[in-house]
């Protein structure tokens, strides 16, 4: 079965379920679906723009390196044979 045909059958199934709703309920559903689609689109746009760029910090590179080195914890214990 073609994915387009499969999606069409799913949509037809939903439409048959929604036939019994009142007009106000249908309009409310349309508004909520529209808001959902708009939210999905804005999330996709913002997540794409956040996927690139440099690390931003007010600290210098040397300060960041010093913090990383200071946060290292060595707990390695060498066992004798």
From TrEMBL:
<protein>
    <submittedName>
        <fullName>Uncharacterized protein</fullName>
    </submittedName>
</protein>
């Amino acid at each position: 079965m073609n994915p387009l045909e499969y999606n069409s059958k799913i949509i037809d199934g939903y439409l048959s379920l929604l036939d019994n709703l009142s007009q106000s309920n249908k309009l409310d559903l349309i508004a909520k679906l529209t808001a959902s689609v708009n939210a999905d689109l804005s999330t996709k746009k913002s997540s794409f723009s956040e996927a690139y760029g440099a690390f931003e910090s007010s600290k210098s590179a040397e300060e960041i390196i010093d913090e990383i080195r200071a946060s290292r914890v060595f707990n390695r214990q060498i066992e004798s044979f």
